Amino acid sequence: MTLPPLPLNALRAFEAAARHLSFTRAGLELRVTQAAVSHQVKGLEDILAVRLFRRLPRGLALTEEGEALLPVLTDAFRRIGTTLNRFQGGRPQEILTLGAVSTFVTGWLLPRLPGFRAAHPFIDLRLLTNNNRVDLAGEGLDAAIRFGDGAWHGTAATRILAAPLCPLCAPEVARRLRGPADLLGETLLRSYRVDEWESWCAAAGIAAPTIRGLVFDSSLAMADAAAQGAGVGLLPARMFDRDLRQGRLVRPFAAEVTLGAYWLTRLQARPETAAMAALRGWLVDQAAMEAP
């Protein structure tokens, strides 16, 4: 047997009354009288031909049928509310889930995000940080910002900005460094990319030492270690501009080496949405404003 259409007001009245186990409190929430809630619930029970509540001397108790119906309605109303909340100015917001390497997020992206929101109010941006190791499909990402050479299999990549690497260290360490060769007597902090110090030493005109010690998978952690005097980190200086301005980190030498850039990536097999295109254009424009 097919049920007749169920009145939305009755479903809402039941859901509120079931949460509160009170017609009175449900009426206060819905801004109707206790009698109106009771009437709506009674009408729903008549349509379903089941009792949803047991009327007790003091309050209500759900029947088995009511207990089965409540979570379904609660989830449905939550999903309706979430969808309606996406509408703004007569159009829905488009959710965009972006993964990004933490260094880029804290050092460059966060200060600029209010501008993105102002320019694209209909994009609901969800930001997830990582240590540059990304699985676009597995993590449910629409796009990801990562550091490298732009060549990732099955990925479309747009170059955002370069990030040359240079030594950064605490002020007390910098005072011991007269020239690049003095680094050979210091602890050199390293990342999982093993050729970075060798490449920088070649650019600075010195022989690369054998480097032993801690390996970091995060430039943020390496920078914090360097600021605490644990050694000299090879880091993208433009991502640590605030630390350099505050004097927490010092750049002792001008020599730098470019081993990659920050790229916006997406799966080639997935068409670019309007929100993805808007983010790509905004990132490229922001980076172009800083080009020398």
Explain briefly what this protein structure is:
By secondary structure, this protein is an alpha/beta fold. It contains eleven helices and 13 strands.
CATH superfamily grouping of the largest domain = Periplasmic binding protein-like II
Percent of sequence in beta strands: 15-25%
Q: Mean pLDDT, rounded to whole units? A: 91
Give, in spatial order, the strands making up the sheet with the most strands: 6-5-7-13-8
Helix content: 40-55%
Which CATH top level class of the largest domain fits?
Answer: Alpha Beta
Q: Helix/strand-derived class? A: alpha/beta
Radius of gyration (Å): 29 Å
Give the second-level CATH assignment, the architecture of the largest domain.
Answer: 3-Layer(aba) Sandwich
Largest sheet: 5 strands, mixed
Q: Total number of helical segments? A: 11
**Helix and strand succession?**
HHHEEHEEEHHEEEEHEHEHEHEH
Oligomer: single chain
- Flag low-confidence runs: none
Distance linking N and C termini = 73 Å
Number of domains: 3
By CATH, the topology of the largest domain is D-Maltodextrin-Binding Protein, domain 2
